[in-house]
User: What shape does this take?
Amino acid sequence: MKVTLIGYSPEPEKVPGMAAMLTHSKTTPEALYGLPDQQTRKVLEQVMELGHTSVIEHTCFTFAISGVSRSLTHQLVRHRIASYSQQSQRYVNLSDPQYVVPPTITEHAEMAAEYEKTMALIWKQYNSLLKLGIPAEDARYVLPNATCTNILVTMNARELLHFFELRCCLHAQWEIRKLADLMLAEVKQVAPTIFQHAGPACESSGVCPEHKTDCPRYPG
Amino acid sequence: MKVTLIGYSPEPEKVPGMAAMLTHSKTTPEALYGLPDQQTRKVLEQVMELGHTSVIEHTCFTFAISGVSRSLTHQLVRHRIASYSQQSQRYVNLSDPQYVVPPTITEHAEMAAEYEKTMALIWKQYNSLLKLGIPAEDARYVLPNATCTNILVTMNARELLHFFELRCCLHAQWEIRKLADLMLAEVKQVAPTIFQHAGPACESSGVCPEHKTDCPRYPG
Amino acid sequence: MKVTLIGYSPEPEKVPGMAAMLTHSKTTPEALYGLPDQQTRKVLEQVMELGHTSVIEHTCFTFAISGVSRSLTHQLVRHRIASYSQQSQRYVNLSDPQYVVPPTITEHAEMAAEYEKTMALIWKQYNSLLKLGIPAEDARYVLPNATCTNILVTMNARELLHFFELRCCLHAQWEIRKLADLMLAEVKQVAPTIFQHAGPACESSGVCPEHKTDCPRYPG
Amino acid sequence: MKVTLIGYSPEPEKVPGMAAMLTHSKTTPEALYGLPDQQTRKVLEQVMELGHTSVIEHTCFTFAISGVSRSLTHQLVRHRIASYSQQSQRYVNLSDPQYVVPPTITEHAEMAAEYEKTMALIWKQYNSLLKLGIPAEDARYVLPNATCTNILVTMNARELLHFFELRCCLHAQWEIRKLADLMLAEVKQVAPTIFQHAGPACESSGVCPEHKTDCPRYPG
Assistant: This one.
């Protein structure tokens, strides 16, 4: 899995800060934009504290993600307030076996060997189908959930906070949690005020929405 | 593949018709709602003709879809203005092999036999992993795109028109086109005015947005 | 202000209940739909308790709203996950003065009289502009925020819960709070399980997201 | 009316170009991002030509807009795939009369004088209400649609294309058309490939979706 933050809105924290000021002010947007960073940051901190997160929608982030499974992307694209461009299995010939191995399988040498063999066989079958003239879009029906894919994702900061609440949770599926953790590490560096308390709901809001008493994080 | 229209907004054409009237009228909504069907239908026809389709958003349809592949649903859920509830491969043990076979494969007896063998082997592996204590959410990494899934979908009529434009097109992938055709047949019965000209873009708007000169429907 | 629930998804609680079951089951959607109401209701209660509200998106409600101000609708249409059809001030000639009076003004006889006089004058001006041939879309620039309007709104149950959290709050503006309270009363009658705990965030989640220590509801 | 493009995604055309390549390629996103601009631009041109505009969602634009009427913003915020932060009439005391005058009124000296008088009277009333202790959120009920407001808007390029189709049309209301024209001029400078054919539907697609035979642009 590789995650690269390839771009984000310039002034990722100043614009939300000035946006918050604009809603309560007679001052022109241009004048607010000219205020010192520390002033807009302070306002941003205040509105984040109050949960008024609409202003952070003005800040968008684009991530290039590669080496993740189609299981992961099928979950990822369920987040509807976002934009995606994904490697197509209709148009791309995936003749080289590239797949994800879950850690629970890697840990057991014997199972892992079986898994590798199955993957080899699946790709052998995939390539045979292609050779016989079956279009890639149909041959791919044999390809596993584990198959690697690439995807470009753009999300705004508000949706990202929500994404982290759900997907950084210990009850999230391991692969998408790993992705969410990597994405969070990236955005924290460029927008530390916005993502200061970002993470699973228990961390961001102090409450487990699922009341999970069996969670190691909140064993209570 | 099975598609059942399990529910839709009551008065699927009257409400959009009265909605269109409401935008241009002083009359109360309740009085407009009381107008004869033929009057609201006529207005609906007029606004549909003008492409003013916002009023048909008030009409929503819920479909139960089963026996489709995960390839299909990965495409389907990319339609973001809709609501989905899908069978989870994390929580459901899919020990019985249930999968889709593309027609290009079914047509060739030899390939079809190979495909069946591969599926049998994949499921054997999946069940072995489960037996060894691997959680279903990890064992499913070996499961193919072909694996059957169930999904409940709610879309409003405006988004459905867009869905049909893209997915009833001869260039859409065969399985999702089949689904779109079945969905269209269902909604045409209960909302004939709205879906009168529904279908691929070439049919609904008379133009191929992709300028496909190689399309059998519009041979250039 | 008048609010009429003119339509909603049939089986507003059964479909979400079966949707929740479908995600964790091998059973066909049709079979789940055939289960007794009490069984699907129980599952719905469980998932609502866990905050898994995605399934209630399948249930949509359409409200006819009349006699509200344009101040209210300018706020209302900021809720983006919804569908609206509103009386147009471009195309409708609003020659009869119809406007909302805030209670703080009604309470003071003198002010109220002034307010009435201002409204009369504004409408006199509006009608003069129309008479001189100014199009309604320009004459309306003199019309006040108080001007009455009609609007048809369709929202799904999940968005409604969010709407009630924000707009039933004592810190919401009085007119939209009144609307939200009326809408909530309507939907509670037809979907009591879904809206059981609906209301301001302090009620639905037990926490005030704004930490308002000056709120009469939670005097801190 | 003042429109300032205060920010937009870095590499506004390169990212969509590489996004389009990613969907059809085995190459890593990072390698595609490293390609020369002319190569990604060529791909972007091709996909725009085919109407495959999903890739331009990765590019977002933020506009600061001031000196527009509340009539305009009530229309503007109906575009739901966008983010807004608007000056609040609940929290901002708008004691100085600032309002828009429609050109049809400016053109007639006599009417214009009447309009000014009405505005003066309205604001006098507004200020009286404030002085008597009526909260701004209620006093504003007398304020006209013409009242100036400030708003910050973030939209992605795909939604902007749609916005321009509707709002640059000669049948759009004059004020929002003026805004759309100014926004289009701004984005054309920084993303010329994306907005090359942007404008009303007749220009972008060569067809009038409303079949307006009375339009000066397409006199039938």
In short: Chain D has two domains: 2-84+148-204, 97-142.
